[in-house]
Amino acid sequence: MPQSSILGRVGQLIRANINAILDGAEDPEKMLDQLVRDYTDNIAQAEDAAAQTIGNLRLVEDDAREAHEAVTEWGGKAQAASHKADELRTAGNASEADKFDDLAKIALRRQLAYESQAKTLDTQVAQQSETADQLKDGLNKLRAKREELVQKRDELVARAKMAQAQAKVQQTMASVSVMDPTSELARFEEGIRRQEAMVKGRAEVSASSLADQFASLDNDEDEAEVSARLAAMKSKMPA
């Protein structure tokens, strides 16, 4: 993938509003998992692009350094040839002096060529240095954002599990609520109350029957006394 595309993708991911993405997701946990995968893949691509850019940068830096050294070297050769030409011309050897002046010109042309090359290479070094810095900065931000996503995912999963646990507790509490007439505890308590009422009813029935028996016994004793007194009265009456 071209470096410009990588830089564009890195910029998009860095500027991405994760909260807005999650708010619009049907399943935030799955969305976070996908985002983590996307960031991981793009980090790997950005790392490759950064490594390639830095490698190319080092090559261009080497070429630029060699070009600058050649500029200095050919400048020195031109100066030496010109100096030799001056010495020969002073000595009256004009033809030889001209030859060295020609050599000086050749050296200067080489120097100019290397100066142009060095200038071009310096521009490339500056551009690739800027690109490499952008990629490295983007990589650091991508890694930080990926860590943020992982933390968000872990937090979301923990919150979801806690919410599920709380929901189960609330369901359990609702099922045994003493205020709920349909709860098992309420039905159990109602059964006990009915049994207690039955026992009380039976006790009252038993008590009523016993009282009747005692009342009947008292009436039998009275009748016997009446019969005895009547017999006594009859025995005292004259014949």
Draw up the topology in text.
Blueprint: H1 3-15, H2 18-23, H3 28-90, H4 94-175, H5 184-236
The CATH topology of the largest domain: Helix Hairpins
Q: Helix coverage percent of residues?
A: over 70%
What is the string of helix and strand elements?
HHHHH
Distance between the termini: 152 Å
What is the CATH-assigned architecture of the largest domain? Orthogonal Bundle
Question: Outline, from the CA principal axes?
Answer: rod-shaped
The tally of domains stands at 2
Low-confidence stretches: none
**Average pLDDT level:** 81
The assigned structural class equals: mainly alpha
How is the biggest beta sheet arranged?
A: none
Q: Helical segment tally?
A: 5
**How many strands in all?**
0
Name of the CATH first level of the largest domain: Mainly Alpha
Radius of gyration: 56 Å
What does this structure look like?
With 239 residues, the chain is mainly alpha-helical. Helix content is 91%, strand content 0%. It has two domains: 3-175, Helix Hairpins (Orthogonal Bundle), CATH 1.10.287; 179-239. It has five helices and no strands. Helix 1 packs across helix 3, helix 1 packs parallel to helix 4 and helix 3 (28-90) runs antiparallel to helix 4.
